[in-house]
Amino acid sequence: MQVRLADPIDLDGFRRQARQLLAAGVPPQEVQWCEGPGQSLFDDDSAPMPALRPAAPAPRVPAAFVELCRRLILHRDPQRLDLLYRLLWRLAHEPALRHDPLDADLLQAQRMARAVARDIHKMRAFVRFTRVAEGEGGAERHVAWFEPEHRIVEANAPFFMRRFAQMRWAILTPQRCVAWDGHALRMEPGADASARPPPDAGEALWLTYYEHIFNPARLKLAMMRREMPVRYWKNLPEAALIAPLSAAAQQRSQAMIEAPATEPRRIRAPQPIHLLPAAGSAPASLEELRAAAHACRACPIGALATQAVCGEGPRAAARMLVGEQPGDQEDLAGRPFVGPAGQLLDRAMAELGWPRESVYLANAVRHFKFELRGKRRMHKTAGQREALACAPWLGHEIDLVQPQALVALGATAARTLLGRSVAVQAERGRWLHERADGRAVLVTLHPSALLRLPEAHRPAAYRQWLADLALARAPVA
Fold first, then answer.
1. CB-CB neighbours of 140 under 10 Å
2. Which of 23, 157, 251, 359 could form a disulfide bond with 56, CB atoms 3.0-4.6 angstroms apart?
3. Fold category of 283-473 in CATH
4. What's the mean pLDDT in 445-459?
5. 16: which residues sit within 8 A by CB, 6+ positions away?
6. Got the DSSP string for 44-109?
7. How many percent of the chain have pLDDT more than 90?
């Protein structure tokens, strides 16, 4: 009996036909599975399907077998449908089969399913898009050429749709092509290799990147060929670099070994012991304060940061601007407000006519608090206990600098200077006279708060923030 599917990967059609055959009691050796329309004089399309037995129950199979069918039907082997129906027949008539890990049919099906899964993974890893301009208007589309080993284009299309949802793209293969226009996936007939787009500028950039990340000391050619089989190389632009980079790997590795050591960036400079103040005494100078803050371990932050970051600016400054804590760049440089937030503050002070050297800049917290995300150190707001541990350093700094008034940039600075919680939005833009030493405090936003706003809201927020800072030019009222 000949059974023909409308499409080679028509799983629903296979399940429907297989159930009918199984219910009619047709054994596997009496079934010939075919794909697509008849192409031979020997194809017999006239043989009718057997009628269902009225009382025949639906076959029950393990859930793992359904998943096996989804993978196996994508395999290129023309005998896969015979294997699937044979396994279905045996599962229905040999219940013990599902518990036999050494069965030859099961092992063969599992090997084929793994080959399909591997091909799906390789397609996701080795597709390389090229930018192509189409039509008179030069509409941009990204096109890739790939030659899969199995029928995996439809199965992989949703992955590429999710990953590249914001761009128009097409993947061309010899058997089936898939295109995404930003709204819907479209399956098309296979293409010829001549349709492969020529290299673009992005390919040269990719080759430069690949050449620079190549690590000769970690080269393992056998493993590389296993993970990136040679048959894929003809469609990978970086494959042309593999031979010359591999040939020079030993020489480059030896050069790396012989090169002098790189000076580390995050090593604390030794602090002279005689600069540290005696226990219980206040620092007598800013240099002594910096040394003492650097050695401080009153909270855990000091043990993890590169160095303490104290303030900088002139003695007896008219205004002292106090932020929250140093960021990543400040931690490495040892200076306050040199990162993105500091650059925004420099811009504001330039518009207000304040030279940076005329203002004393400091932070409420002396050390950088962060959490690691991969290799990046991401800013983390200091807790209240950590701010309280650093408060004496800011107090000593104010006593040594003797500023006329204070500007609190953000809630952490305002809480440290005023000794209470401060709602910045409610109390911003006015002088507060609450300190015991008589110095007034002007509360406003920290510049990093503006950088976190959506782009459309930044201009208005910046103008309002600049108006707050402008109050510090006038006499304290």
1. 13
2. 23
3. Uracil-DNA Glycosylase, subunit E (3.40.470)
4. 94
5. none
6. ---PPPPPPPTTPPPP---HHHHHHHHHHTTSS-TTHHHHHHHHHHHHHH-GGGGG-TT-HHHHHH
7. 54
